Amino acid sequence: MPQPMPLAQQFICKKCKSLSNVQTYERTREGTYFCVCQHCAAKNQVVRTGATPSQPGLLPVTGLIQ
Ligand SMILES: [Zn+2]
């Protein structure tokens, strides 16, 4: 079966290692961007590339936010 094309930006969750879609970018008070995992709700700190969430791509995750 062919793999479906990613419709949005995605990232690999650092906690549960699942592929998750970026819903929205959220920002901490310190100005760090993170995306919430769809599976375990972990806050994954991501590198914002400047692309909007609808532009397909895989985001590098740099860490977890407690
Ligand atoms: Zn997760």
Task: Write up this protein.
There is one protein chain. This protein has 66 residues and is mainly beta. It has one domain (9-65). It has strands at residues 9-12, 19-21, 26-27, 33-36, 43-46, 57-59, 61-65. The protein is globular, with a radius of gyration of 12 Å. The termini are far apart. The mean pLDDT is 87. The structure holds zinc ion.
What topology emerges from the helices and strands here?
Blueprint: E1 9-12, E2 19-21, E3 26-27, E4 33-36, E5 43-46, E6 57-59, E7 61-65
Parallel strand pairs: 1-6
Antiparallel strand pairs: 1-2, 3-4, 4-5, 5-7
Question: Which terms would index this structure?
Answer:
about 70 residues; mainly beta; 3-stranded mixed beta sheet; binds zinc ion
